[in-house]
């Protein structure tokens, strides 16, 4: 049997607060769902990248236009402080009126 890597799924609301965190996200980043849910997404973003991420995220939520390629390799931050390389693809999560309510990221270790 060939083991396939699990996909970490992280969903954030339009303010950047984590609202969904699956078991694969726990494995990839080291934070439990209890630690992650309700926290700002900066929990897993290295501090030097916080401002750039906040700006890009705000533009995406307001405009619906992503400046990222369909899949990108990124570096996040593990609970132990170590860098984590992963591939990520994102999609907008829409509310009942079609407005962006948040963003969902699908991640696999790189």
A few lines on this structure:
This protein is an alpha+beta fold and 110 residues long. The protein has three helices and five strands.
Mean pLDDT, to the nearest integer, reads 92
| Biggest sheet overview | 5 strands, antiparallel
Query: How many runs of DSSP E, i.e. beta strands?
Result: 5
Run of helices and strands = EEHHHEEE
Poorly predicted spans: none
Structural class of the secondary elements? alpha+beta
Strand fraction equals 25-35%
Query: Strand order of the main beta sheet, please?
Result: 2-1-5-4-3
Q: What is the straight-line distance between the termini?
A: 21 Å
In one word, what is the shape?
globular
Helix count equals 3
User: Helicity, in percent?
Assistant: 10-25%
Radius of gyration: 14 Å
Structure description:
This protein is α+β, with helices and mostly antiparallel strands and 110 residues long. It has helices at 23-29, 33-36, 50-63; strands at residues 8-13, 18-21, 72-77, 83-94, 100-109. The protein has a five-stranded antiparallel β-sheet. A hairpin with a 5-residue loop joins strand 3 and strand 4 (83-94). The two termini are 21 Å apart. 15% of the residues are buried.
């Amino acid at each position: 049997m060939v083991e396939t890597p699990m996909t970490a799924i992280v969903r954030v609301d339009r303010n950047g607060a984590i609202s969904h965190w699956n078991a694969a996200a726990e494995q990839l980043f080291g934070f439990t769902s209890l630690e992650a849910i309700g926290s700002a997404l900066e929990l897993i973003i290295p501090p030097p990248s916080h401002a750039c991420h906040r700006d890009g995220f705000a533009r995406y939520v307001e405009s619906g236009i992503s400046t990222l390629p369909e899949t990108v390799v990124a570096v996040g931050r593990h609970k132990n402080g170590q860098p984590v390389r992963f591939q990520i693809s994102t999609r907008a999560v829409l509310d009942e009126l079609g407005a962006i309510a948040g963003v969902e990221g699908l991640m696999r270790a790189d």
